[in-house]
C-alpha cells in the first residue's frame, strides 16, 4: 500500500509492501524529502488496520488527521488477527490494541452493530424500488415506483403500501461466521415480505423457505427473525411486494432493531440515543428513560421533568407541557359488587394523567353515580353473598339469573363451557393489554372496561394503540355421550359485538393454538351494527382468543378519536375443558336402572330421549355436529347422496339417476376425478400485476372426506411445524373445492411462482340434482352457453360454513356437469365469462364441467338395428348408436347377427312364370270366344238370307237348332245381354267403326216386340254381310 502526502515542496512518501507468502516478511521504506516538519502528537493522527492478507494477518498504521502538518508517525506494527473481536460492552483501543470498556452513556456490541434509530435511513442502507414492467392504468398514466421506499418513522421503518417491489439493502463484510436478527410486524398477507442474502458475486445464498419467507405476526406483536451469516461479504435484502387484488391499500411491514454479529472489531463505542441512557461502564445496551424524565444523546442518566407544568412519556428526549383537562381525559367505570350486591358508575382520569384541572377552561371530574343493583352472575356461576360470583361445583349447573347452582337430574350430564353475558368484573381467564408499534408503553392504560351488559374498548395512550382483550381456553372436552362421534366440530365460539367509529377503526379477531402463532380469523373496519359472529373449532388444543381494536393506523399526537369504541355484549364458548355448566343434557345410560352412569354412544348413534339408549341414525342421515339428543339430530342427506358408516357426513359415490319422461337416466361420474383443476385468467391488479385464480375440484371426495388440497408456498408457519405438530393451523386447505391465487414468476421477478391466499369454497356436500335450486342455492342458466336439452345437466351443490365479513352464511359452490360427447372422459372445466373469478358476488361460485363421462350410461334405447342384403340365402343384422351418441359406458352394442333368408331371384322367377301362364290363358280364352262369335255370325247371315227369300222374319223368338249344329249355342235374340255377350261386344268393339247397321222390324205383330239390327263391313264388302247382335 502506498500513501502519498504532498504539501508544496515538502513530500512524504511511505511505501508498504505486504507480501502474502508466509516465507517472506514485510519490507518498509520510509522516504522523507524537502524540509523538516514538527513531530506528530497523539492528537494529530489515528490508527487503522490494513486489509487482511491470505494468512489472516493485518498491520496497524498511523494516519495523520491533516495532511502534511507533522512528521514522525509511529511505525506500522503487526495487528491483531483478523478474526479478533472484543466482548459486548467493550471496544478495541487501537493505540494499545487492547479491549477497553465503553464509558457511561455509550454502548458496544463487541463484534456486532445495531441499528435502532430510524429518524432517517442510516449510512450504508440503500432503498431500491422496481417495477418489472411499465403498465398504463385506466387513465393512461404509466405506473412508476419513484415514490415507493422504506420510510423511517423514528423508532422503526415502514415499508411501501403499493404494488412496487421495494428492497432495503445493506452490505456487510464479516471476518467470521455471524448472524443477522431483526424485529418486525407483518400482519397483511396481501404484501409479500422476504429476506434473502447474496454474496459478492450477486448470487443468492442457500436458504430454507422458512428463512426467506417471513412468517405473519400477530397484530400488535413484534416478531423476531434470525438468519446465520457466512464469513465474507454478505448483501442483505429486505424486500416487500404489495399485491392489491381488490384495489385496497395493504398494511405495511414494520422493521426495527437490526443487529448484525460477526464484524471484525469495534474501534469505538456508540452513544446512547436521546431518550435512553447507560449508567455504568461496559454497557451493551441503553435503557429507556422512565416516564416523566428525558435525556439527550450519550446520556448516563435521565433528567426529571417539572411535573407541575410538564410531563414526558417513557423514552422521551424532552418534556412536554401539560394541557388543560377536557372530556376525553376521563372515562367511566362500574365498580365491583359490594356485600350488599350494589355497584355504581364512577369516573376516573386516564392514567397517566397529563392534563391540569386548575387551568382556565379545564373540565372537572364528574361526581360518581348512584349505587344500583349489580347485574346477575353469568350462567354457570353463583353469588356467594359477598358480592362476587363463583363457578358452580362439578355436576351442578346454573342459569345465572337466580345465582344458585342445581344438581343435574338423573339421566343427564352437565354441558360445560363459558357464557359471559354480564360484565361487572373481568373474568379470571381474561386479561387486557395495550400495545403501540412506536414503542410507547401503554400497558398500564385502560385497554378494555367492563360496563354492566357489555365490555368496551378503553382509552389507551394514543389513537393508534392496539387495545387487546384476551380469553384463554385450556382445551376442549366433548360430553360423555358424544365422545364416540366423529364430527369435525369439537366446539365453537360465538360473540355479539358492534363498533361505532368516526375514523378508520379496525377490529381483529385472532386465534392462537398451543401458543405457537396468532392468526387472524376475521377482521372488520369502520362502524358495524350489532351482530353475531361464530367460529367453529375443529382441533382439540389449548386456545387463546384475542380481540384487538385500533382507532386509526395513523400516528397522531393526542387523542382525537377517543369516542370511537367497540362493544362486546356476550362471548360463548362450548365444550370447554374445566368449564362451568350452564345446563344439563340427556345422556346415554348403561341401563334404565336407577343410578346407571352415562356412557358414550358409538359413532353415528343418537340418544333416544324416551329410553336414554343409543340408537343408530337411519340410513342416509348424518348427525349435526356433536348434537346427538333425539332422533331429530339425524339430518337426511340431500338428493343424490348417502351417509358414511359413521353418519358424520354425506357424500356422493359418483353415481346418479334421473327420470326424464319415460326413461331413467343413470350416470357414473367416477372417471371425472379424483381431482381436477382449472387456472383462469390472467387478471390484473390496479397497477398491472398479473395473477391467476387456481381452483381444485374433487367432485365426489373420499366418502365424505375432502380430496382437493390447495397450498401456499408463502406461508405464515414453518413446514416443520406443519409436519410435526398435528392439530395446528397449516399453510394448506383441504376441501371439495379450494382456491389459490397464483402470481407467476415472470409477473414480479420472483424465482418461482407464488401461491397464496388459499381458501376453501366447499366443505360440505349438499346433494346432486338435475334441478337448478337446492337448499336455497340457485343456478343461473344464463351464466353458461345454452345447449340442446336432450340430456339434462346435473348440478352438484356444496357449502362452506365458515362465515366471513362479506359472506355471512359462508360460501357456496355449484358444479354443473354437462354431457358433451366431443370432450374427453376427464372433461374440461370452465367458469362464467361474466364472472372470470368464478363468482359474481364473492360468495357463490359456479363451474361448468363438460365431459363425455357426464353423459348417462348407455341402454338399449341408445342404438338401433340395420338389416343387410340377402346374399346367397344369408342375411346380416348390424347395430349402430343413435346419432348423436349421448351416452357412455353401460350396455355394449350387440354383435352382428346372421340368419338364413330367401333371395329375391326366386320370387322374380315365380312372378315371371305366373305372368306367362296368365298370358297364355287370356290368349286361349280370346281365341275361344272369337270362334264362338264366328259361328253366331254365320247363323245370323244364314237367317238374313232366308228372310230375303221368304220376305219376312220368322216369328220365333230365337233360331231353331238345325241338324248338325252344336246344341250349346246360345240364343241369338235377347232383350238383355249376358255377361259373356258383354265381353264379346268389348272384343268386337274395335271393328265396329268399319260396319254399318240398320234397324229391322218384323212386319208381323207378336205378343212381344223383337228388334233386329243388320250390319255390314263397308270397307271390305260391297254387299251387305249380315251380322246379328
UniProtKB/TrEMBL annotation:
Listed Pfam families: ELAPOR1_C, GBD_ELAPOR1, GBD_ELAPOR1-like_3rd, MRH_ELAPOR1_9th, TNFR_ELAPOR1_6th
Residue intervals passing through the bilayer: 906-930
A GO biological process held by the record: positive regulation of BMP signaling pathway
Domain MRH: start-end pairs: 652-857
Signal peptide start and end residues: 1-27
Organism: Paramormyrops kingsleyae
Name by which UniProt lists this protein: Endosome-lysosome associated apoptosis and autophagy regulator family member 2
Upper lineage: Eukaryota, Metazoa, Chordata, Craniata, Vertebrata
Keyword list, A-Z: Cell membrane, Disulfide bond, Glycoprotein, Membrane, Signal, Transmembrane, Transmembrane helix
UniProt family annotation: Belongs to the ELAPOR family.
Main location: membrane
InterPro entries hit by this protein: Elapor1-like_3rd (IPR056609), Elapor1/2 (IPR039181), Elapor1/2_C (IPR056606), Elapor1/2_GBD (IPR056608), Elapor1/2_MRH (IPR056607), Elapor1/2_TNFR-like (IPR056610), Growth_fac_rcpt_cys_sf (IPR009030), Man6P_isomerase_rcpt-bd_dom_sf (IPR009011)
